[in-house]
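Workshop exercise sheet. Pairs work together: one partner reads the sequence aloud, the other fills in the structure field after running the prediction. Swap roles for the next sheet.
Pair: D.N. / O.F.
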Amino acid sequence: MRLVNRPICFVDVETNGGYGENARIIDIGIVRIEKNVIVQKLSQLVDPGDRIPPFIERLTGINNQQLGSSPTFRQVADEVSQILDGSIFVAHSAAFDYGMMSSEYRRIGEKFEYPVVCSARLSRALFPDFRKHNLDSLIDRHNLSVCNRHRGFDDAYAIWDFYKCCLRDFELDVIEGAIYKQLRKQALFS
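Structure field:
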């Protein structure tokens, strides 16, 4: 199936800064694209069940009061699953975002399985002459507009904007080749 015919969800999560079992999602941003048009969006704060440290408040602008009045992950999981349904999961440094989502679903006893594409790896494949491929570098290099950096929806939208730059600068076959290379490697390990 051509990539243009597959739903794609650009995803970013922010966390409480914890490690292992203490790591929890506090903010989810999703931009769902079908045929290169936005069809659904999600910007959702999530109560991690504990206070977040001051450095996370400073980084994200999210405070404990906001999170205390937000739903838990269990309460938003069905909506997140509905938006992601049948899509390719795209995130920047995707192992982190996908791993966090997978952990949250595992905690509530549900599976989380989607084909995953890393936009940092996509950037390295399409723009090999550049040394840095972190999200800040992509934002600067491609003049992407981001109002609230380190917020789930704004960062997810920045990844979508980067993807649109790729569509502008490369033939679809080249982009699909780079994406399917990532997806084929996953198939070898599943």
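Discussion prompt: The CA atoms of residues 124 and 131 lie 8 Å apart. What would you look at next?
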